Amino acid sequence: MRSICRPPAVAGSFYPADAGELARAVEECLASATPAAAAHGRPKAILAPHAGYVYSGPIAGSAYAAIRPFAAEIQRIVLLGPAHHVPLRGLAASSASAFATPLGEVAVDREALNEALALPQVGIDDEAHRREHSLEVQLPFLQLLFPAFCLVPLVVGDASTAEVAQVLDLLWGGAETLIVVSSDLSHYYDYTTASRLDRATANAIEELRAGDLGRESACGRNAVRGLLEAAAHHGLAAETVDLRNSGDTAGGHDEVVGYGAFLFA
What we know:
Blueprint: E1 5-6, H1 19-31, E2 45-48, H2 53-67, E3 76-82, E4 91-93, E5 98-101, E6 104-107, H3 110-117, E7 122-124, H4 126-130, H5 133-136, H6 139-145, E8 150-156, H7 161-171, E9 177-182, E10 187-189, H8 191-206, H9 221-233, E11 238-245, H10 246-249, E12 256-264
Parallel strand pairs: 1-5, 2-9, 3-8, 3-9, 4-7
Antiparallel strand pairs: 2-12, 4-8, 5-6, 10-12, 11-12
């Protein structure tokens, strides 16, 4: 079988294209993170945003900084993010054997993906992955934090809460597996409205109320809902470690995008 690497699509726009500059940018995001320790122990899953690093990087850093102490234990990352560029029913796996960023290549766990592909809601769709940034912007954080891991990348389209939760249950694994869901929160409201909406979304996430996440809550709501259902099924508790928006980081207050960092343990 021919080896295929999915090349970076947003290096130089969402994050630096130079490896050294990128590593420094990720470290700066981690260093500027809101200090937090997981109140319920080692996180099994995190929820982190996926905008350009200048906007959402420090908030993503808050999620990743909280799992940094456990990095040596983690060998597999199950990574879910929403489809932004193609209409998609269900969840899309990739035929690639690796995903690349300027920091190098990450091997895809084909065995795990093949297990997921046995489910009717999961299929191969390379076009869904080709330009998708929601997964890609998480990779440099993962590459910097985890010395050796394989990746299970899935783009989530029109999928029910139960369909996403079923995939997560299948790939849940043990202490070696971390689940990362990539999502921003509200989009293009004024600062005050966005802050109110995002606080309501954070409350729903903390209480694992998947049904309370609507279209205005998060672009990755389908993946997030599935995570909340799976978290409830596995007895996890959720906590918010950072909740800000682009008006707090690098933008104006007229139209902002909301970002949150959440831990599930």
